[in-house]
Write a structure and sequence with these properties.
This protein is α/β, with parallel strands linked by helices. It has a single domain, classed as Rossmann fold (3-Layer(aba) Sandwich). Helices cover 34% and strands 22% of the residues. It has helices at 3-12, 36-41, 57-65, 78-91, 106-109, 137-144, 160-172, 192-195, 199-206, and strands at residues 18-20, 47-51, 70-75, 96-100, 115-121, 147-157, 176-181, 212-217. An eight-stranded mixed sheet has the order 1-4-3-2-5-6-8-7, with helices on both faces. Strand 3, helix 4 and strand 4 form a beta-alpha-beta unit. Helix 1 crosses helix 4 (78-91). The protein is globular and about 40 Å long. The termini are far apart. The relative contact order is 0.14.
Length: 221
């Protein structure tokens, strides 16, 4: 491991808005589960998650624009999260937190009905491993267990196959689709989905790659 990474990991330990636990600690009840608003953010504002957030570019961008909402980015890579944490500290963003954890453990951190929206931004498409995809039925069931009824899921990806797979799953399982586009920047859509770009998204756009977007909510029953 590089010296720079070691320094970043040490600094991560000093951020009060970054939560990270070892695997063997997951059998303990997480102290903020069910009470993020009350005990951490100090308000009852909606909670929006970015899963597989990387450097937290969407988490930070949305938090800057919506001070009346709370944002939590989740990723397993501490070196990536360090970048987002630095931005939170430098800008004194009080409506942001990060969790270093595998998304499999989502239900350890959030209670039923605690989350209003989920953003999935450029996830690993997991070719040939559909069960591992973040929009597989297995993961969507986990999302349902922490989301409010009618909560919105946003998928943004450069992988056409991943997009079409998710659209198929949403249709087959009776989830309600609001927006679907295999070329969102040429669809006339405006707002958060086109208003923020990650570092790699800018690179892909620069070489003419199309970005897909799907917005849907989970069927309650």
């Amino acid at each position: 491991m590089s010296k720079k990474k070691l320094i970043h990991f040490q600094e991560n330990l000093t951020f009060p808005f970054l939560f990270q636990f070892r695997f063997h600690e997951l059998d303990k009840v997480f102290h903020l589960k069910g009470s993020w608003g009350e005990k951490f953010f100090g308000n009852a504002n909606p909670i929006i998650l970015e899963l597989g957030c990387g450097k937290g570019e969407y988490t930070i961008g949305l938090a800057r624009s919506y001070r009346g909402r709370n944002f939590i980015g989740m990723d397993i890579k501490g070196a990536r999260l360090w970048k987002g944490c630095r931005s939170v500290k430098e800008e004194n963003l009080g409506n942001v937190a990060f969790i270093r954890s595998q998304i499999d453990h989502l239900e350890h951190y959030f209670a039923m009905g605690e989350v209003s929206e989920i953003w999935i931004t450029f996830p690993d498409p997991q070719p040939g491993k559909e069960r591992k995809r973040l929009t597989s039925p297995r993961f969507l069931e986990k999302f349902k267990n922490v989301m409010k009824p009618g909560g919105i899921i946003h998928l943004k990806t450069d992988d056409r196959d991943f997009y079409e797979y998710t659209l198929k799953i949403a249709t087959e399982y009776g989830h309600e689709t609001f927006v679907s586009s295999n070329d969102i920047y040429n669809s006339g859509t405006t707002g958060d989905v086109t208003g923020f770009q990650t570092h790699y998204e800018n690179i892909w756009l620069g070489i003419g790659k199309k970005i897909c977007y799907l917005q849907f909510s989970l069927k309650n029953s």
